């Protein structure tokens, strides 16, 4: 009989960052559900605010860079260690990514066979199945966001993992060099942004490059955490900056300024973990961060089937009825993600980790 083990943080040293991870994952879900929230035009203020929530992905890059620096600094010095690291990363990201890719391939096949009214050639680009399988679909090899469209960020993360030994060559020279590299990459991307789109909007079109500044800033935060620990009232600063991001989004602040606020939220989270005991809210939120990755990859399936097909197509919901249906699925995704984590992802991760070992 299946027992429901409790969710536990991987470490008690990053609880504020864990709290940010789960809050950020929910914000991303709301961002992608947003077009159904304001179908009747009565929630325009919320709509204007939520449109900037896509920048929360850049907060994930900061947190990822910090975690990688905290765990692997000085530990990837041989090809064997590097290979083992990549194997663990594939075991962590691969199973659910490949499963959700398979779900969208079935959806495309059903649409092509006329079983459902769902045809979207740019999204269901057969030529981009292999890049998705290999985690390279955010490296400029595809012409649109394909299949499970949010997985571009997983591709960008994998690019950072592959480049991690090179990034450690930079960080080994000290925080000044890390800061210079982070700022230089940020300035370069801002300069080469094309077609009137800032680099913080890149996804399939070199989203891997978009991840570089945030990842480096996360590694820098690891290096300067003793200084960040001096920040007074760091947890309040962290939540205050996140609130300021929402208010500034509502007021129509420039996307570049909002991106800098998101980076600051990540640094404040590091400061909070380095200097303060977690409060009740953080302690309650932190274990749920175990579901953030699952929630991120599963919610496009709920968007496609439960909200678009059922809510919009079959039931023709609008206004408050659709908003209630969206809220129901934001809540339902939590237990669904838990079941996925416990019954599929962790067993699959353990199986991959054991490959090649006696």
Count of alpha and pi helical runs = 15
Summarize the amount of helix as a percent range: 55-70%
Sheet-strand content, in percent, reads under 5%
Our measurement of the CA-to-CA distance between the termini, rounded to an integer number of angstroms, reads 29 Å
Sketch the topology as an H/E string, one letter per element: HHHHHHHHHHHHHHH
> What is the rounded Rg?
20 Å
Uncertain parts: none
Q: From the helix content, strand content and strand pairing, which structural class follows?
A: mainly alpha
In this structure, how is the largest beta sheet organized?
Answer: none
Shape: globular
| Topology, number of strands | 0
Mean pLDDT: 92
Structure notes:
The protein has helices at 15-37, 44-50, 56-72, 79-112, 129-133, 152-162, 164-171, 175-192, 207-223, 225-228, 234-250, 255-275, 280-285, 292-314, 319-354. It is mostly helical.
Give me a quick take on this structure:
With 358 residues, the protein is mostly helical. The protein is built from 15 helices and no strands.
List keywords for this structure.
358 residues; mainly alpha
Could you give the topology of this structure?
Layout: H1 15-37, H2 44-50, H3 56-72, H4 79-112, H5 129-133, H6 152-162, H7 164-171, H8 175-192, H9 207-223, H10 225-228, H11 234-250, H12 255-275, H13 280-285, H14 292-314, H15 319-354
